[in-house]
Amino acid sequence: MPKLTWHGHACFVLEHGGKRIIFDPFLTGNPKADVAAAQLPPLDGILLTHGHADHLGDAVPLAKRFQATVVAPYELALYCQDQGAPHVHPMHIGGAHDFPFGRVKLVVAIHGGQVEAEGGERFTTFPCGFLVTMGGKTVYHAGDTALTMDMQLLEGRVDVMLVPIGDNFTMGIEDAARAVAFVKPKVAIPMHWGTFPDIETDPETFQQAVGKEATVVVLQPGNTYDF
Ligand code: NI
Ligand code: MN
Predict the structure, then answer these.
(1) Model confidence over 60-72: pLDDT tens digits?
(2) Are 209 and 181 in contact (CB under 8 A)?
């Protein structure tokens, strides 16, 4: 049974069958993170939606420490390699690959993606969302994104959708609820809310807006969801 743990913002750990991956490991400097990067258990994969600091986060030090594979859009994967990540696997939108931990497909996200670090200027990346299939279940981590018609292509293919609701940088509640209606996942879990003043919002209002389209599971940092 796959297990998801939210560590605040867009950071989730997904584990199944003795394999463990992390999405967007922004822990250092994240006021809502429930763990420090140093406390994480061993990781097999580190999936990055884009280069903004609140997503790239602790990726490179974690990749070095665990010899974990960084999976990211091509340009961002090369940036991580430049920074010393020992194993990177560049991909791009529309492509899928089978990893020892599961299948990963990159899908469209409408956003920016510049790496905000010294030497990162030439790595302005195309952002992505991820479809990850582990243990026969598919998780859609939407990344930072606007509502887009492309989400309709995912209808019927997603068990659990991780959806940004914080507004300002991504979809707000109204558009996030429309995104859920497009994708029709069994379960939607809100993310990218409450970390900073600009993205304060009420996940219960999102739950009401989604209505019967999906089951909304509101997690707090440190909470786990089994499915
Ligand atoms: Ni961003
Ligand atoms: Mn963000």
Answers:
(1) 999 999 999 999 9
(2) no
Identify the nearest ligand to the CA of 110 by its number. Answer: 1
Say which CATH number the domain at 205 has. 3.60.15.10
Considering the domain boundaries, does residue 193 fall inside one?
Answer: yes
Of the ligands numbered here, which is closest to the C-alpha atom of 191? Answer: 2
Ligand 2 center–CA 163 separation, angstroms = 12
Span 183-208, average pLDDT: 98
φ, ψ of residue 47 to 5 degrees: the values are -105, 125
**Ligand with an atom nearest the CA of residue 127:** 1
pTM beyond 0.85, yes or no: yes
The answer to whether position 223 is within a domain reads no
- How far is the centre of ligand 2, averaged over its atoms, from the C-alpha of 52 (Å)? 7
Gap from CA of 202 to ligand 2 centroid (Å): 17
Contacts of 224 (CB under 8 A, 6+ apart): 3, 4, 5, 6
